[in-house]
Amino acid sequence: MPPADAGMTGAIAAMPLSSFTIESPLVLVGAGKMGGTLLKGWLDGGLDPRAVVVVDPTPPADTTAMLAAAGVRALSSPPSGTTAKVIVVAVKPQVIGEVLPGLRGVAGPKTLSISIAAGTTLTTLAAGLGDTAIVRSMPNTPAQIGRGITAAIANARVDTAGRALAGELLSAVGEVVWVADEGLMDAATAVSGSGPAYVFLLAECLAEAAVAAGFDQSAADRLARATVTGAGELLRRSDLSPSELRENVTSPNGTTAAALAVLMADDGLAPLMKRAVAAAKERSRELSGQ
């Protein structure tokens, strides 16, 4: 596989989920889709349900059912008299400003805070949480099936053990890439955070093209879905680069070559994708107030 970008660092040795206890719990703030996905990954990975506290005034019904079945404490506000080992902030960025100050009561001098709120900078997080150890991260939706990838960056207060623990928690739903420059978090949001939508759009467009070629909608949808997911799985399992895999399926002067002549033209897919990622990156910067 190709090496990681120079602006990113490799994985850190993991710490066990058993490091959480009732007295020093993991506090999850926000049990929506991504928060609930992370929690399920932790519980499946062996986290003691008694060692986690969920704080959410209105958790989704499916998450509520999971919490009850697992025996996880669920509260509408941060627990008093508790010092969290880790606080994971999984609320929408629009409300994070009003949520963060209320978490200071469960944060101790050794507490690690992890945010998955899109576009929320380390500076903004520190303004709300205080001068403490903070990891900013950006997971994506394939985390729902344990196949996500999360970009993360730690502030200067996070030590090696803190990075290891954050990596263990975030890797419960997929891979983790540590970013050395916070400016790359907007790029990660544009590439991997928003990226699944680009792939879903490709499937939509391929199905539309199949209909235009003569298939009925049902057959077109099946062909497009199986083609995109099958190619993605082949890419995951193969040691070959995407370009090598593309070349392997392209016979000279064949049908694939005819299609790629269109997709790889000067005004084809590559420049379009670059403009799309640039637009998403700029919007991420705007949302973070940069």
Could you explain how this protein is built, in words?
The chain has eleven helices and nine strands. The protein has 290 residues and is α/β, with parallel strands linked by helices. The protein has two domains: 184 residues, NAD(P)-binding Rossmann-like Domain (Rossmann fold, 3-Layer(aba) Sandwich), CATH 3.40.50.720; 93 residues, ProC C-terminal domain-like (ProC C-terminal domain-like fold, Orthogonal Bundle). Helix 6 packs across helix 11 and helix 7 packs across helix 8. The radius of gyration is 21 Å and the shape is elongated. The N terminus is likely disordered.
Integer count of domains: 2
Mean pLDDT, rounded to whole units? Answer: 92
What is the CATH C-level name of the largest domain? Alpha Beta
Helix vs. strand class = alpha/beta
- List low-confidence stretches: 1-13
Q: Any idea what the CATH superfamily of the largest domain is called?
A: NAD(P)-binding Rossmann-like Domain
Strand proportion = 15-25%
Q: Which series of helices and strands comes N to C?
A: EEHEHEEHEHEEHEHHHHHH
How far the N terminus sits from the C terminus, by CA atoms, comes to: 34 Å
Helices and strands, with pairings:
Layout: E1 8-9, E2 26-29, H1 33-44, E3 52-55, H2 61-70, E4 73-75, E5 84-89, H3 96-99, E6 107-115, H4 122-129, E7 133-138, E8 148-154, H5 160-170, E9 174-179, H6 183-193, H7 195-212, H8 217-237, H9 242-248, H10 255-263, H11 269-287
Parallel strand pairs: 2-3, 2-5, 3-4, 5-6, 6-7, 8-9
Antiparallel strand pairs: 1-9, 7-8
